[in-house]
Design brief:
The chain is mainly β and 361 residues long. The protein contains two helices and 24 strands. It is 5% helix and 41% strand. A hairpin with a 5-residue loop joins strand 8 and strand 9. Bound molecules: 2-acetamido-2-deoxy-beta-D-glucopyranose (6 copies). One 2-acetamido-2-deoxy-beta-D-glucopyranose (NAG) binds next to loops.
């Protein structure tokens, strides 16, 4: 019995990927405002490192972007980190794009960054859930043009409620089509997918009757593109064909694909059409091959972590899988940034070939 358990465990780990630790933090710190930014005087005094809860991650070039849960003691809800540095000392969090866009209760500032995605043209798309005063928005920044704000889209009340208690923007994925970028967005626990078109600057919602949605991931183009959905409060994985999402006001059909071992809160698909998932209160992440019947494999597993949302992750254009790990104990909260080469990029890119390493798109 004992031997069998060891054997099973060994099998799990044989499939696991070896991550290397890039940085470790006992406490987070920020790069504080200076010079032109110094009007943001008192934020440093109010900062509480223990309040930093990393939420979503995106990668582009040599930077990682992270959203942080908004609560008192957190001075900025959107930050970036370098992927490498001259020293092994963990880097400080840098506000993105600058302190100027992190003014509390100023609706021209970012209030609550949630899901994020980078596109293959160097844009960073950020969902902003706003607050009691400010409505929900989608920000698009241009990372290859000095981090300028390219667009700020405020959702109409009919698509995303302007009443804070009726809204909970969550996650975003991008669909690059022939002549447009569409964003598919979730509002936790609603049965609606919100669709935004960059070309027409318009948004609409499509209902998936019977499937309250928490997290989502978009497949590659190797299959008729599918949006994978984690059902709210459940282990069930559903898919819906994106062709059904392009018509305003319609319904789409969710198909049950399988059942995870736990409730997923975050999902991501790579350019080889492999789906990765992280689960509430579980100290492992899993993956499955979308091209085969549902079969879950452990991807990364550690001992006890004690966190409700222990991991957040992103893929870059070079085939690196980036992941943060949160370890919450009575002695404090420690974070790690981990990295593994998976040989595949984000779903937005073509599959990674060793010969086209520096190429994009
Ligand atoms: C991970 O590292 C272990 C020990 O170095 C090695 O035996 C194993 O093959 C590695 N796994 C992968 C998937 O590279
Ligand atoms: C990815 O590769 C490109 C080209 O080799 C390099 O410039 C870039 O820094 C790499 N990105 C990361 C995150 O390492
Ligand atoms: C980028 O922004 C910085 C700081 O605002 C400014 O000094 C610099 O001139 C800008 N560069 C370009 C190419 O616009
Ligand atoms: C969508 O489904 C709902 C049931 O959940 C139904 O009442 C409604 O008529 C359907 N709408 C369309 C456009 O089919
Ligand atoms: C996924 O499954 C398909 C079909 O069996 C296979 O061709 C493909 O190589 C698998 N992908 C990965 C990344 O294992
Ligand atoms: C989490 O932190 C505790 C206390 O420092 C430590 O004993 C434990 O090994 C850590 N867990 C992991 C998975 O690193």
């Amino acid at each position: 019995m004992f031997f069998a358990a060891i054997l099973l465990h060994g099998l799990c780990l044989a499939n696991a990927i070896n991550f290397t630790t890039v940085y470790e933090w006992d406490e987070f710190d920020f790069i504080w405002p200076s010079g032109a930014d110094s009007s943001h005087g008192q934020i440093k005094q109010n900062f509480k490192s223990s309040k930093v809860y990393l939420d979503y991650m995106a990668a582009f070039g040599e930077r990682l972007f992270l959203s942080i849960e908004t609560q008192s003691g957190v001075p900025a809800t959107l930050v970036w980190l370098p992927t490498s540095g001259a020293s092994t000392a963990p880097p400080k969090l840098a506000p993105f794009p600058s302190w100027n866009l992190h003014e509390k209760d100023n609706c021209d500032s970012i209030q609550w960054a949630k899901g994020m995605e980078t596109d293959t043209d160097g844009r960073l798309w950020v969902l902003d859930d706003g607050n009691r005063k400010c409505p929900g928005k989608l920000w698009i920044f241009n990372l290859v043009n000095n981090d300028t704000t390219e667009r700020v889209y405020q959702f109409p009340d009919t698509v995303v409620s302007h009443t804070f208690d009726k809204r909970w923007l969550h996650d975003i994925v991008l669909d690059k089509t022939q002549d447009d970028y569409l964003a598919y967005i979730t509002q936790v626990s609603s049965e609606n997918i919100i669709v935004y078109s960059r070309k027409t600057e318009n948004s609409w919602s499509v209902k998936i009757p019977g499937v309250r949605i928490s997290t989502l991931a978009l497949s590659t183009k190797s299959e008729a593109r599918q949006l994978y959905l984690g059902r709210y409060g459940s282990k069930e994985l559903y898919s819906v064909s994106v062709s059904e999402l392009k018509k305003e006001g319609g319904n789409a059909t969710g198909r049950l694909i399988g059942k995870w071992t736990a409730r997923p809160y975050r999902m991501l698909i790579d350019s080889a059409n492999v789906l990765y998932a992280a689960f509430n209160y579980q100290s492992y992440t899993s993956k499955r091959n979308n091209s085969t019947p549902f079969h879950e494999e452990r991807f990364h597993e550690v001992g006890q972590l004690g966190a409700g949302y222990p991991f957040t992750f992103a893929l870059d254009a070079n085939g690196s899988f980036w992941m943060t790990e949160r370890n919450e104990t009575d002695f404090g909260i420690r974070h790690k940034l981990l990295k593994a080469e998976v040989g595949a990029r984000s779903y937005l890119y073509k599959i990674l070939l060793s010969t086209d390493l520096p190429l994009r798109g």
